[in-house]
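User: Some background: our group keeps a shared notebook of sequences we're curious about, and every so often someone picks one and asks for a predicted structure to add to the entry. Today it's my turn. The entry only has the sequence so far, pasted here. Could you supply the structure so I can complete it?
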Amino acid sequence: MTIEESFYIGYISKTRGLKGELQLFFEFEDYQDLDFDVLFVEVNKKLVPYFVANIKYQTNSTAYLNLEDVDHIDKAQPLVRKKVYLPNDKMPERDPDDFRYTDLIGYLVIDEVHGELGEITHVQEMPQQFIATVDFNGKELMFPLNDDLMLGIDPEDQVLEVDLPEGLVELYKEI
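Assistant: Of course. Here's the predicted structure to add to the notebook entry:
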């Protein structure tokens, strides 16, 4: 299994107890819809398969899980802070009309005043709003995704038109 044949769902955040239980933090929105018989942990840039013996979902985008053959904290500890993937064929299907801000990753951002800014590389959910990160001349330009700033979305050409607040782009030019 390669990273191209899989999709990222989150990372192992910590161990729990002495029997090898792990906490998985999800960065995948529909984590309750995922099928967990096997998952892949990135170790030294390779995906290592682990069979899931038990999983208990929590309310805070986490789950506690036990992996087969990981039955002691000493076996679990090396997996902490490792990225977790599932095979592409386990990706849950979504309604085509179900649009999310994370769908904007890869879109080209065009500002009304400054023109082309770059491509959205990351969308992060904060407590009050979503934040987009754009690769702007090798720097990370960040701005909130809200209806006041977004002028239009073209899914066919993957373009997001925005009107960013005055001074925001200049701030990133100076850094």
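Suggested note for the entry: The mean pLDDT is 90. Helices lie at 73-76, 168-174.
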